[in-house]
Design brief:
It contains no helices and five strands.
Length: about 110
Amino acid sequence: MKSEETPFEGGPLDGRVLPVLLGPTGHPPKVYRVPVPDGAGGPPTVLVYRRVQAGVSKRIGLHQGWKYAYDPTGRAGGIRWPWSKPDPAPGPVPDATPDGKPEDTHG
């Protein structure tokens, strides 16, 4: 398989250039996950980097390669379909039953 030297921006890998395997289309993967082992023997921390366009040529606006930008949220990403549920907002989970209203009893 072919690989390409790809720069990383932000996060712990800021400024590094690493060889990244290319897919069948000749592009690196959209999301690059780097597992970092925990020193105490716990589960590894996974750093998430997203592929972004490295630049555009000045004269005719051609694509000039790829780079990876750090994603501190670390969400899995993927395809967002129009019928998909929105991401849950951070914070406490609200109570499902309204205050002062007893549960429905059919009797």
